[in-house]
Write a structure and sequence with these properties.
Blueprint (H helix, E strand, L loop, with lengths): L1 H31 L9 H20 L9 H18 L3 H14 L8 H12 L23 H9 L14 H11 L11 E6 L4 H5 L13 E8 L11 H18 L3 E7 L4 H11 L5 E11 L23
Helix pairs in contact: 2-3, 2-4, 3-4, 3-5, 4-5, 7-9
Bound molecules: flavin mononucleotide.
Flavin mononucleotide binds next to strand 3.
Length: 322
């Protein structure tokens, strides 16, 4: 009897709801993800540039590359960059793209042609001075990592999810610092598709479309929504990557807040199609950005406060040697 009830529940409630939610995600993915099409958005163009230029940066960093490598990618990048600058003007990405192409043609082992060299020269003449070129390779050295494991562990283990805040405002400088720190997170092909949307007052309507404030979230000084832009992700095997990049970005943002002595608590984004639709209306977040999570934050109050212990199990159970 119990088994039949469970089967009926599965067939009548769980499967239909799940199918609707997956279908909703599918249509969003098909609508906003990166595709080979002439009608693409600025972000999709940026993603294409980043994908290609990052492949070249990796090639430039290899100790023993194949002679004549990378020609097709560099040629494609020069074409994309030209179109990007013509349509969108010169920005950091244009400088980066031309910078990488410049590093590429100046590397003795890369694949070149007269046309490619000419294309890169043309791009530079459009208005990017040599001193403004960015990207290529940089040098790293282990001796510069001058802190130890225990120091980092102490910083991280002093963070707890805090659901009680003072009324003191979080400053825009503090937010900018935390974003800057979040940007140190790695992202797939360095696509940097994540953003932080900041809501200062009256975010109750946002919480309302996210199953409410749970008795604490409305007391925060700021509500942050971490998003990842689907325009930056393409092939079907990348379909979950926005959540991965977004999660890493969010974690770094939380740590950026933590080291400035600002309390935070993440709040799960409720992925129900009807709530999702309402969420976009109340937040005015562009539909190509998917919410990763909410982060509530505020300054600590002066008194000592209680938080859930949130015990961590032994780290040995988390290591599986193969
Ligand atoms: C993505 C994410 C969603 C979360 N959602 C909620 C939430 O909806 N409500 C809540 O009270 N805490 C939420 N938390 C906080 C967790 O309960 C908390 O991180 C966990 O218990 C570990 O505790 P600690 O952060 O103090 O180390 C969330 C955390 C994460 C990472």
């Amino acid at each position: 009897m119990k088994k039949i009830k469970s089967l009926i529940r599965l067939l009548i409630f769980i499967i239909p709801k799940t199918v609707i939610a997956f279908k909703y995600d599918l249509f969003r993915w098909l609508r906003f993800s990166l595709r080979d099409s002439d009608r693409i958005t600025k972000q999709q163009r940026q993603a294409k540039l980043l994908l290609n230029l990052h492949a070249l940066e990796k090639g430039l960093s290899f100790p023993d590359p194949r002679e004549g490598w990378g020609y097709q990618k560099a040629f494609l990048l020069s074409k994309y960059t030209h179109k990007y600058i013509t349509d969108c003007g010169i920005d950091d990405l244009a400088r980066l793209s031309v910078g990488v192409l410049d590093a590429f043609i100046n590397d003795p082992l890369t694949g070149k042609s007269e046309t490619l060299i000419h294309n890169v020269e043309l791009l530079k003449q459009i208005g990017i001075e040599k001193k403004d070129l960015i990207g290529g390779v940089k040098f790293v050295q282990k001796d510069l990592i001058n802190f130890n494991f225990q120091e980092l562990y102490n910083v991280a283990s002093l963070r707890s999810s805090v659901r009680h805040y003072s009324e003191k405002d979080i400053t825009s400088q503090e937010i900018e610092n935390a974003v800057k720190y979040a940007q140190t997170a790695p992202s797939v092909c360095n696509r940097q598709a994540c953003k932080i949307h900041v809501f200062s007052d009256n975010f109750n309507d946002i919480l309302d479309v996210q199953l409410g404030n749970q008795g604490w979230a409305h007391k925060a000084n700021k509500l942050f929504v971490v998003t990842a832009d689907l325009n930056f992700f393409g092939s079907v095997y990348e379909r979950n990557q926005p959540y991965i990049d977004g999660g890493m970005f969010a974690m770094q943002f939380v740590m950026g807040m933590h080291v400035q002595k600002i309390a935070t608590c993440c709040k799960m984004y409720i992925r129900k199609p009807d709530l999702d639709k309402k969420f976009y209306i109340v937040t005015d977040i562009p539909k190509n950005e998917i919410p990763i999570m909410l982060i509530l934050a505020g300054n600590y109050s002066d008194e000592i406060i209680k938080v859930p212990h949130s015990y961590r199990f032994s780290s040995t159970n988390r290591t599986v040697n193969h």
